[in-house]
Amino acid sequence: MLLIFYYAAIIMYGITFIFNVSGLKRCEMVSAVFAVISNFIPLILIFDNSGHFPGYNIFESFLFSSFILACLAIFFPGIKGYISKIRLWVWVEILFLLIMALLFSDELESTGFDYNYIHKILFHVFRPLSMATMLYATAYFTQSIIEREFNERTSWLSHMGRNFLVLSTVLFLVSEYTGIIWCQQEFGDFWMWNKNFMQSTIIMSYLMLAFHIPGKGKRAEDFRSLIGGLSGVFVVTLTIARSFF
Fold this sequence. Notes:
Blueprint: H1 2-22, H2 25-50, H3 58-75, H4 83-101, H5 118-146, H6 152-187, H7 195-211, H8 217-242
């Protein structure tokens, strides 16, 4: 049943993408609502079947990130005149996440976890939230690069991208801090150096690079947008790559 709604979500997001490209805005919004509902039902089924928040493995976190990303596109559409273009990139990102999640469908857990560790729950909640927000920033940065003219209106695209990138960084830091507290409570010590901690270090280093690129003008703005825009792709790729080690 879970996978049926999962495949339905992929199909509905695909239809939404087609309506966006075709310029059928009303049809796009209707199909987007059905896509979000189809996306939300598997999350409920995971929670109902296993008793844990849907974010404890790559399949669940990508599914949850897709849901948050779609909600951002619907309820926070962005700059007037670029709404449809921003949503186009969002639908592409969601389809990519859901298709990649198929590679990890065997990771679905059937056991619950200790609800006494609220920080463990928060860690696995804020990680997908950060990823979704970062991918939303990527959509703005991508459109900023595509726009040839550099003026006050188009510069707002990269500005909004940076705003969402800052928000995603805050969410990521919250997940890290709650994760540290969780480890202290459950294992009696802070995180040891391992592949998970290494991933966090790499992500934070990349984000700091994205926030500290100097320069003015179109070329510098494009470079900042490029590095900022790749942040979402970078995190998703790193998450997938980590699963093989």
